Batch of 2 targets.
Target 1
Amino acid sequence: MAPGFSPNELSSYLVISAILFSLGVFTVLTRRNAISVLMGVELILNSANINYVAFSHFGSGNADGQIYAIFVIMLAAAEAAVGLAIVLAIFQLFHTIEVEAAETLKE
């Protein structure tokens, strides 16, 4: 175990979740590659899963958080499938996966 990390404290899980969320937001805002943006969204969803499970465990002690986390995992799988399909379609049209290439689709 890392020094200062106690798995019996809610704050430890919240700090890990905040770090994951911050990395996800940073990735979404700074990357031009569409696959990197999708990976950032996955990090954000995983940080939400950590919060659901941690609050469920330390709060009421029932399985509500785990059930919400399973729904978020299903949402993330659907998002990845649709997102990758869009990325492949953009790649076939423009031969790049840069996010700015999708702006020309408005015209």
Target 2
Amino acid sequence: MIYRKSIILKNGKMALLRNGDEPDGLEVYDVFNRTHAETDYLLAYPDENCFDPEKEAKFLSDKTKSPNEMELVAIVDDKIVGIGGFEAIGTIHKLRHRADFGVCILQEYWGLGIGKAITEASIECARNAGFVQLELNVVADNKWAVEMYRAMGFVEFGRNPRGFESRISGYQEVIYMYKTL
């Protein structure tokens, strides 16, 4: 699935959203590790990353070739500053209508509209790929993200009070959300 769009950020700079692809492997690997070190709201810690730059490159290439999954990169000033996308939850009949979404942005680029733009692109592309439901998990204390997702039409369908076990703060409540496409 191919996507490419330029957007103007809240600070007036231009950002390019496009598919991550094989040549981006090392930079995406680095951004993944940096974003996961900068906040305690994401699923994993950098030392738990099961990818290396080569596996990341293959992952990005596979997503670009996929007819129904996608991994985007956000580029500002010729550097990748955010990544996000969606993948099928399953291929069996009872699951193939659902996709899982995730996004991470380098902290210095928070609040500029990159996360929202990646989310909007993922919603559009997931719908075009034939999914009817896009799902995500978000830490309840991540108030900014929760409000953004609600404003974009995601609906809470459950909570897990011990959804994540943080190395820093103990258990974190996780909100399960979905959006009908």
